[in-house]
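To fix ideas, we quote verbatim one protein's residues and fold tokens.
>
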Amino acid sequence: MRVFVFGTRGFPNVQGGVEKHCEYLYGAIGAPYKITVFRRKPYVDKSINAAIDFIDLPSTKIKGFEALFHSFLCTICCIVKRPDIIHVHNIGPGLFIPFLRLFGLKVVLTYHSPNYEHSKWNQFSRLLLRGSELVALSFSNKIIFVNRYQMGKQKSKVKKKSYYIPNGISPIKAVADMDVLKRYNLKQNNYILGVGRITPEKGFLDLINAYKKTNLKDCNLVIVGGVEHEQEYFNRLKNESNDSIIFTGILSSDQLAQLYQNAKLFVLSSYNEGFPLVVLEAMQYGCSILLSDIPATRLLNLSDDIYFPVGNVDVLSNKIDNKMLHDYQKYNFDLCDYDWLKIAKQTTDVYHLL
């Protein structure tokens, strides 16, 4: 069975939740499925995954245009090559699903998040994304939601062809190296970690301001993530920062594993998420965690003391103080539902329904 995939920038070593999702998912799907992933040339790494074919197509890095342009090219290729199934990720690329269906192709959509809620988009882009959502949900043969809350919001016609399959986590990497900690002069179990693309909806400005209000001494805040289109926002973050706040940029999975393994506290301060993989990763390493109280994080069914009202800097600051000064235990979370092999099996089960 030939499965063509688009809606991701590509992988490996490309930051983003959808990119990680695709890398782990299709790495876990084996024979008899032949996976071909479309990647965007400006982002791709030369690394090769022997189990997956890649088609690298031209793309821009113009915000709001690159995904549409690349998805259009992917659509043309799919119409010409006619795979058994096309798996589209996210609602923006889903705008082209009617054309695929017009040519008799079968399409599965994975709905990651309502992108139009992100503050980075202007009014026209939000209207386009809402239109793409309507088209993608209407014309897909089957729909996978990584977020049960988002699936619950849909009308009955969409729910009838929808399936909830969560994000997952790869096997834990126990690392002995400490080169990242040494590079930034970090002490084990004495820093706060935030991970994500540097964009306003991740709430890093709230996290920085909350950290500065704490009573912590000799403790760092480490923010891991790259900047793509939001250089002005990143400059604002740096202007609000002090010498104890460290921006690492993009790190490899092994380097990030070092930081998870030795962090005292992980904080997700996001205003919007689909289903945040970084939270699962932090939980896997037993980090103490604090999460903004949004529908995506409530799906994890954790205790109320882990959550803080999104955007409330004072409450977050107090909770950081309590966690860092009084909470010394490593946690053992039950993550059996988030195994990629299990998720891969659930995904291929959906393929067989077409």
